Amino acid sequence: MVNQAQRLSGLLNRMLFFSVVALNRKLMDVTQPAKIVAALDKHLPDYVINCAGLNSADRAERDPQRAMLLNAEAARNLAQACGDLSIPLIQLSTDYVFDGHYASGYTEEDDTRPLGAYGESKLQGEAYVRQLLPQHIILRTSWLFSDRGDNFMLRLLAEAREHSLMHAVDDRRGCPTSAFDLARVVLSIIKQLSCGADAWGTYHYCGAEVTTRYGFSEAVIAAARQYEDLKVDSIQPVASKDYVTEAQRPATSVLKCGKILNAFGIRQRPWRIELQRLIREYYGQVRL
């Protein structure tokens, strides 16, 4: 999640309930335990949200050692430091810990079986957090999109400005999740934990409504056309076997979110509404 810490901190600060400090690699290198301890001693946070990591599945496949360093070893370092200082940790994770064979979707209790280096490294990070820090929330999400950074929505818009014909996979199913919506969920969890909720553990959250990459692409282009004349004339659906990538991706990334509803009362928001919100914000900031 490129720039995820800064994005999430900005969204949480706008919600006016907490003071949030976003620490980039220069301010806190999560691969260096001593630097983590120094940063935590300086800021004395009530909660730590781990947004760091290598979050490109293809890059992780090219460099699995770096993926393991940033997604697993870094999580271990944070969990150890937070445990020593009695600071709860919220660890963001991914649908890629599953192999995608359950067409109906996945609960938190389903067996994990990553298909590649990215999912494996994130799953190992989860294991370290569970082992080292009882006071943790592991929050798995899927198909994250934002109006900043490097993500599917912005890459799609860039391609739509350059090409009249585009292709999108139509046999991978999932639930897109906006960064703003994820920040809302994290905020709600922290507020309830701060009020004494004893609901530590692993949870799923994603936007409401299952779609495909093709369906999401159509929705993004339709929303963007309200603000910009795009070059693209047509988006054609293709099978995943004809759209080769370095990393194998789950065929089904649907996360079931009943547990987070029962524990925290958090309901899924439709990703289409969140998409319209982010598109408005995006075109309010971007000069074409």
Characterise the protein shown here.
The protein has 288 residues and is of the alpha/beta class. It has a domain at 4-151 and 176-210 and 254-270: NAD(P)-binding Rossmann-like Domain (Rossmann fold), CATH 3.40.50.720. The chain is 44% helix and 13% strand. The protein is built from 10 helices and 10 strands. The chain has helices spanning 4-14, 33-43, 57-62, 64-85, 117-132, 152-162, 179-194, 213-224, 258-264, 271-285, and strands at 48-50, 89-94, 136-141, 144-145, 165-169, 173-174, 177-178, 201-204, 211-212, 234-238. A 4-stranded parallel beta sheet has the order 1-2-3-8. Strand 2, helix 5 and strand 3 form a beta-alpha-beta unit. Helix 1 packs across helix 7 (179-194), helix 4 (64-85) runs parallel beside helix 5 (117-132) and helix 6 (152-162) packs across helix 8. The longest helix is centred in the N-terminal third of the chain and has 22 residues, at 64-85. The mean pLDDT is 91.
A few lines on this structure:
With 288 residues, this protein is of the alpha/beta class.
CATH superfamily of the domain at 4-151 and 176-210 and 254-270: NAD(P)-binding Rossmann-like Domain
Q: What is the spatial order of strands in the main beta sheet?
A: 1-2-3-8
User: Biggest sheet, in brief?
Assistant: 4 strands, parallel
Give the C-alpha Rg. Answer: 19 Å
Count of discrete alpha- or pi-helical segments spanning 4 or more residues: 10
State the helicity in percent bands: 40-55%
**CATH-derived topology of the domain at 4-151 and 176-210 and 254-270:** Rossmann fold
The proportion of residues in beta strands is 5-15%
Low-pLDDT windows of residues: none
**Mean pLDDT reading:** 91
Q: What general form does the structure show?
A: globular
The total of beta strands comes to 10
CATH class assignment of the domain at 4-151 and 176-210 and 254-270: Alpha Beta
Instruction: Return the structural class.
Output: alpha/beta
Tell me the span between the first and last alpha carbons: 25 Å
